[in-house]
Amino acid sequence: MHRRRFLITGASRGIGRAIAEALSADGHEVVGVARHPDAAFPGELRAVDLADTAAVKAALAAFADEHFDGLVNNVGSVHPAPLGEVDWASLDAAMRLNLGTALALAQALLPRLRAQGWGASSTYRAYRRSVLRKGRAM
């Protein structure tokens, strides 16, 4: 088996952590991104708040200069609210984090992935609660 190197966002818990553990157990190198450090992470974990624009720009510059064979976009946030109470600022922030970060990371890694002739990118989302809950009016 060829050992590959993967970048995983939202890597400290949930689906991101499970993917990191599975890839590591299969012998791959894992670089995780999360807000908080975790000494038990099965690879290298970099503390980056992907909701912070300046932190994202700095991370993008660093990641663009590194070799990765794959990207797992797993970072995400949801702010459930009845339809009539959706806050535009919260929606904008969630879209920047959920979609903007995934797009920016994929674009940053794309030139190297193309140059090496191999690479993969996946996006995962897991929502704990739905936006519209049973019994609540929109």
List strands and helices in order, with pairings.
Blueprint: E1 5-9, H1 14-25, E2 29-34, E3 44-47, H2 53-64, E4 70-73, H3 88-116, E5 120-123
Parallel strand pairs: 1-2, 1-4, 2-3, 4-5
Helix pairs in contact: 2-3
Task: Write a structural description.
The chain has a 5-stranded parallel β-sheet, with helices on both faces. Helix content is 38%, strand content 17%. It contains 3 helices and 5 strands, in the order E-H-E-E-H-E-H-E. It is α/β, with parallel strands linked by helices. Mean pLDDT is 85; it is low at 125-138. The longest helix has 29 residues, at 88-116. The protein has a single domain (5-122), classed as Rossmann fold. It has helices spanning 14-25, 53-64, 88-116, and strands at residues 5-9, 29-34, 44-47, 70-73, 120-123.
* Structural class assignment: alpha/beta
Question: What is the helix/strand order?
Answer: EHEEHEHE
Give the amount of beta strand, in percent. Answer: 15-25%
- What is the CA-based Rg, rounded? 16 Å
Instruction: Examine the coordinates and then state which fold CATH places here, giving the name of the CATH topology.
Output: Rossmann fold
Any idea how many domains? 1
Uncertain regions spanning at least 5 consecutive residues: 125-138
Q: What general form does the structure show?
A: globular
Q: Round the mean pLDDT to the nearest integer and report it.
A: 85
Largest sheet: 5 strands, parallel
Number of helices: 3
How many angstroms separate the termini? Answer: 52 Å
Number of strands: 5
CATH homology group:
NAD(P)-binding Rossmann-like Domain
Strand ordering within the main sheet: 3-2-1-4-5
Helix content class: 25-40%
Q: Give the C-level CATH assignment.
A: Alpha Beta
